[in-house]
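Narrative of activities, Objective 1.

The group set out to show that a structural description can be obtained from nothing but a protein's sequence at a throughput compatible with the screening campaign. Below is one input-output pair from the validation batch, recorded exactly as produced.
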Amino acid sequence: MNVSQLVDQFLQGLKQTTWLEYIAVFSGIASVWYSRKENILVYPVGLISTIIYIYISFKGSLFGEAGVNFYYTVVSIYGWVLWTKKAEDNSRMIKITSATGKDWLGHVAFFAACYTIAFFALTFLKKQFAPGAIPAGDGFASAAAFTGMWLMAKKKVESWYWWIATNVASIPLYFIKGFAFTSVYYFVLLVMAFWGLAAWLKKARERNLQPFTN
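Output recorded for this entry:
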């Protein structure tokens, strides 16, 4: 496929964008903005996007992404509860922190387990009744997102690295499926993820934390 064909496919995809997809995209962008600011609105606003994307992903045979958004929905409620908890001095109970070397091993193991399960599940679905499924790419994006969302709920700086990986994998996935606007959305999220990472690293340093050390 040459550049001209890619552009034509992109423009055609934009024409097919539904109002639901627009709502999901803009609420998702707003959610990432709030997460960067460490604002509790990240969760209620994000829930609008994740619920819509469950439907959109099923429609495009992106079952891994559908599972991810269902997971987002559940963990968003969990994170919402964690982020609202207050200590005795009325400060936030959960604060932005960085992972230790041991934590990183746990994160990678969690990702590997999620990817293995997602890959084999999607491979089965592809053979049985979903020929449009993309096990390797969808599985990778799903596993990275599972990891990122879990760490985001715990306010770990490293959650942004997993969001970056998720966005990189999701851009071509949705483009291939004809969701051009969502593909652009993930590109925007990719840029915002670097922005969010910088903001959280700064906050971690301000608390005299040393990222990536034991």
